[in-house]
Each structure stands twice: as C-alpha cells, then as structure tokens.
Amino acid sequence: MATQKIKLNFINRSKDTNNSSVVVFQKNVAESFDELAVAWRVIENCGRLDNHPFTFSLDFKVSAADSYGNFTPAKVAYNGQSYEMVKDASGNVLKLSDKPATNPNEVEIRNSMETGAVDGNIIRDGKVIASKTTIAPGQKAVFQFQPTIWIGAVSQIVEGDVMNSAIIQTVNRELPLYGISSADIVMTGGGPDKSSTPFVFNLENINKAR
Question: How many angstroms separate the CA atoms of 6 and 84, rounded?
Fold first, then answer.
C-alpha cells in the first residue's frame, strides 16, 4: 500500500530582510508538555517570493541506535505497535514486539536488552521528526502525533537539532493537516524597520483529500 503524502509548498511573501530560517516540526503528544522537539525541516535562504516544496507523509518509520554507535534500519510503524531492541546471534537488532503498545494510538520503542541504553527515533520522509535518547534497559519511549505541524521563523537552528523549550515556545503557529492532500504555506509579515510586524503563517490553496 502506497504511503499517502500531503504536498506542501512554502511561499515567502514576507517583507523579511534578515534571511530568516523557517523551522517545521511536530510535537510528541504522548510525552509531557515540556518534551523537546526535533527540527524536522529547516528552510534556509528562501528569498522573497521564492517557494520551497516538500511532502508530509502520513506514515512514519522507527529506528534505534545503541551505545556502540550502531543504527538499525528504519521500519514502517503503525499506531498500536511496539518495537523492541534485542540482542540476537548477529548483534543488536530492532524488531516488532509480540506485545502491542499499551495505548492503541501510540507507538513504542522498548529497550529489551540486558545492558546498554538505546536511542529511539521516529522518521518521516527520511528525516528524524522525534527522538528519545538514553532509553535504559527495561524502559521504553512512547510516541503519538496529531496530524498537525508547527512552523516559525528561527535563527541558528540546524535540521535534525533537538530544540530547547525556549525556542519551541517562540514557535506558536500550529497548522492542521487533517483531510488535506495539498496546500501552500504562506509566510507574510516582517520588515526592515520599526513598522515591521511579526511573521504570520497561513494555509492557502487547500485541496481536500478524497
């Protein structure tokens, strides 16, 4: 079954003269409100009236890294599934668990090894969108996402960075993607002088999914 992808197109219609970067990320709603988020996409050097197309896949994958610096292949995961890191005859591997996730709306990554912490990653469109580091033996990471993205203008953020809570709090624009097949994300506002206004992000030219 083909992965359903939402086609998004960022358009810079702002008056920005500082070449601001734009970050796109999701929040893991299974964790506490102060959970850190990963900079899933960072749009850079997108000049006035330029556009930047990208996709948002409804499916995502899980991957894990062990304390030896090994990374497992990314595997498609669905809500209600639980993956676990185990040690088999070949070494440390990530496999689908026989036990489902505790919550059918969540995906879990368990550390079922006797020793060594692991990192659990969620990957969407080939890029890490959520991460939980240092999962101890016997512990698990839990992930759940709403069909929304968060977007805002930032500085000194690199794609894949874990953003601190101070940065996350400044990015307060949530764009719902439920039921959408494609849309433009239009950035307006900004400016070079005292009359400048905050950046505003809105969905336009929305096409509904069939």
Answer: 29
